[in-house]
Fold this protein.
Amino acid sequence: MKDPTLRVLIPADKLQARIKELGQQISRDYPQGRLHMIGILKGAVFFMTDLARAMNIDVSIDFMGISTYGKGKTTSGEVRVTKDLDASLEGDDVLVVEDIVDSGITLNYLLHVLEQRRPRSIRIVALLDKPERRLRPVHVTYVGFQIPDEFVVGYGLDYGERYRNLDDICVMGGEAAG
Ligand code: IMP
Ligand code: MG
């Protein structure tokens, strides 16, 4: 898919190499060998499936839908659960899998919700982090890449539901294609 309005920020091979590293690191950090992964729909789906396959421990997966309003490039601050988990988290070691941490509003809210369900432990992995944009504190244990304050699409990330199926992470509005 060639699109002159997109500029590649992180190419697919770098993404995949970093995800393999994360998978190995996370596997080492859970020597008991069991982990319950929760993917945040829909953006984290691509990352989640690759990360799960990069791990060599016993994982189970579930998904949660969170909505922070519409189609634009910013978060409103209002968070809503649109699809809840299938299973209880009680006693589980939980890893929340997110595509990107921006303001931190989504994950800050979600952690409060999930902590009430008494997991044994809970950590976050995010493929991308835009630390400059943080409005709410969130401790993200595992980060794939820190990126500057630019709106990105691809590999799960969308703009108005488009571009999720790109292999690369791309910046929108970059006419100066690299
Ligand atoms: P936060 O609540 O502001 O941290 O926003 C997190 C959510 O906003 C992510 O899960 C994405 O769905 C969306 N988001 C934030 N930044 C971007 C971006 O650059 N591209 C696409 N979606 C984004
Ligand atoms: Mg999201």
